[in-house]
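To: structure desk
From: M.T.
Subject: fold request, one chain
Message: Could you run this one when you get a chance? Sequence is below, nothing fancy, just the single chain.
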Amino acid sequence: MEKDINGRVIELVLGDITRQDVDAVVNAANPSLLGGGGVDGAIHSAGGPSILAECRAIREAKGECPPGEAVVTGGGHLRARRVIHAVGPVYSHYSAAEARRLLRSAYETAVALAVENRCASLAFPALSTGIYG
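Reply: Done. Structure tokens follow.
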């Protein structure tokens, strides 16, 4: 466990993100927000149908969530009270510089939403490392 100069703690945990007892988990979402495989599928499965219902409502109101952006839903049946659905880039669709910019934006947007939603603890998976390359 590491503390920064502001007393914040960064802890690396190897485990099931759906079982983390935190204020919010970050979902490695796809732009559709409708679930998928990997982390996205696990969060939707463990969290239950309310997460998908909220994602559908967001899609109706705003459309898909583009790479580099994120949206928030409730945590459903998860221990976390919120899920922040962050969309990272598919690396083969972008130049290396643009992919890095979008990935950074996905992480930064997720943290900003956590702050906005008063989340003191946050669990992140590695974004854009599975099927997204």
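Reply (cont.): The chain is about 35% helix and 15% strand. Let me know if you need anything else for the meeting.
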